[in-house]
Amino acid sequence: GEPETPVPSARIPLAGFWNTQLSTRGGSLQLVAVVTDPAVESIQIFLGEAASGLYLYDDGQNHDGQAGDGLWGFYSSFGPGIPKGRFLITLSIKKDGQFGAIHWPWLSVSD
Question: Residue 65 in 3-state DSSP?
Answer without folding.
Answer: coil
